Every structure is written in C-alpha cells, then in structure tokens.
Inverse folding.
C-alpha cells in the first residue's frame, strides 16, 4: 500500500511539472521607446495610411508609397518592422 | 503480490504517458514535415501572416481584464503580420545553426509555416486562426500561465496578468498557444530551454509587440 501511495504521488508531481510554464516579460518599455514607436505610427497615420490593425494589406501598400515622406527615425522603425525601404 | 506488481506496472505506464506529454518524444505528436513548405527570409510576408486571425474565448475576465486581453490579441495579429517576426523566426540561431531547441524535427521555415497554419493539436484544421480559450485564475506562485496537452484551455495567472502590459500578455499567450500547436520545452530551466520554440518565439512576440503599445 505504501508503495502504491508513493507511486501515485510520483506520477502527480511528474504531471504537474509538465503543466507549468513560465513566460512573459510584462514590463512597460522605457518612455523614450514608447513615445518613439507611437510617434511613428502617428506620422504614418497622418500620411493617410491609418493603422495596421484597421487593414494590414492597405497599410503595407500605403507604407511602401509613403515611407520616404517620414522622418529618418520612422523610416528606420518601419524599415525594420515591415522591411520597407524608401 | 501479483496485484501489487500489476499496479506498479500500470503506474509506470501512466508515468511514461505524462512525460511524453511534455515532449521528450516529440515525433509522435507532429505531422509529416515533408508536407510543409519552407520559407526563406527573402520571401515576402505571406498572405497567411497578413490575414492571421484569432478566435479566443475568455473565461473569468472583468471588463478591464477583457480590454487588456483584447489588446494583447490584437498585438499578436499585428506582430505575426510583420516582416520582422518572419525574419526573426527564420533566422533564429541556436548553437551556431539556424534552429530552435525542441523543434520537433522542423526547420525554422517549417515552424513559421506551422504557426501560420495554426492547426492546433486538438483542432487540427489548418485554418490560419489561433483558436484558444483562456481562463484567468489567481495563484501566489511564480507561474505566469499553463496548459495541458489534452485541453484547448490556457490558464493565466492574474498575479502577473494584472501587472503586465498587453505586449507581455501577448508574449505569454503566444508561448502557451505554441504548446497547443505541438511544441514543448524542458520542464526545468536551462540556457537551451530559452531557445525552445515556445520560449524563443514567445520572446520574439513580446519584443516586437512592444512597438504596438
């Protein structure tokens, strides 16, 4: 009976270990980084491209056309994110 | 004594089954790799990435928590649609080679395609939709979230969820969902575990997701 209890406990511990996952770095980015990305999305929205959440394909097409109109920082930002070049 | 022997045999079989669910033997849980395409980083972002969808049922959420999770789900779609996500998955390197740890025998390009297929082990149609149900719970532990192989549900700990940014939540949700499409990682921490598909691509998701906060 003791052996049986030990076996059951061992299986339970094993199963629990399989379930547990730790992930996620949830802290807010530094204010400078946050403001840089937001201002780039603002810049491209002002060029008439809207935001990618509205229509991803339209945004991509518009971004390709308008990227050269953006500030240098935002050209780099969108270049990295969407692979667009001016 | 005979009964005891049978019981021990049965228990050890059960123990093996639990270990397998963690993926110590991944090959049995995956489809045939040869039927999947393989992307290269010179290919444009495919339409499946631009049109990647989600179908997430939320359980036990307040309005505020719902809003945060909705934003996190939006971030997942935005990130999957980026060139950067594609390139970082395709070019991920471990031990000097373009590969993930615990990759189930798949190349980086095939893993990217598996993500876009979004064929969960329990909902195996390649529907290009991240299907999941997420339940919030509270536990004073260091577990951010967890799931089991035999359920579509993902449990997320409010101890972390409530303090995380939506990008952090997207990171965790994507990590857990990568389990749903069959990827696993070691239970105990090791440097190589960080390069497993759930950890490495979860990190990529969280990292790129910060651009959309």
């Amino acid at each position: 009976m003791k052996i049986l209890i030990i076996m059951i406990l061992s299986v339970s511990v094993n199963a629990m270990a399989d379930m547990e996952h730790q992930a996620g770095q949830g802290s807010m980015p530094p204010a400078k980084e946050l403001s840089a990305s937001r201002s780039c999305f603002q810049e491209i929205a002002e060029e008439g491209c809207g935001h990618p959440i509205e229509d991803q394909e339209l945004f991509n097409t518009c971004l390709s056309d308008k990227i050269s109109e953006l500030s240098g920082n935002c050209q780099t930002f969108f270049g990295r994110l969407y692979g667009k070049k001016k | 004594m005979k009964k005891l022997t049978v019981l021990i045999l049965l228990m050890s079989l059960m123990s093996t089954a639990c270990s397998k669910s963690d993926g110590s033997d991944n090959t049995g849980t995956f489809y045939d790799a040869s039927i999947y395409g393989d992307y290269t980083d010179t290919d444009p972002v495919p339409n499946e990435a631009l049109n990647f969808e989600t179908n997430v049922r939320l359980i036990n959420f307040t309005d505020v928590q719902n809003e945060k999770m909705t934003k996190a789900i939006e971030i997942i779609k935005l990130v999957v649609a980026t060139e950067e996500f594609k390139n970082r998955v395709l070019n991920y390197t471990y031990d000097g080679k373009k590969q993930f740890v615990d990759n189930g025998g798949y190349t980086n390009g095939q893993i990217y395609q598996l993500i876009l297929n979004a064929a969960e082990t329990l909902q195996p149609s390649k529907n290009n939709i991240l299907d999941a149900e997420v339940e919030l719970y509270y536990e004073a532990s260091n577990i951010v979230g967890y799931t089991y192989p035999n359920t579509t549900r993902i449990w997320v700990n409010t101890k972390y969820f409530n303090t995380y940014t939506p990008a952090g939540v997207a990171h965790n949700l994507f990590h857990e969902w990568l389990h749903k499409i069959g990827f696993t990682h070691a239970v105990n921490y090791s440097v190589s575990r960080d390069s497993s598909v759930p950890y490495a691509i979860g990190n990529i998701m969280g990292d790129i997701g910060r651009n959309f906060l």
Residues 8-20 of chain A have pLDDT under 50 and may be disordered. The first strand of chain A starts at residue 20 and ends at 21.
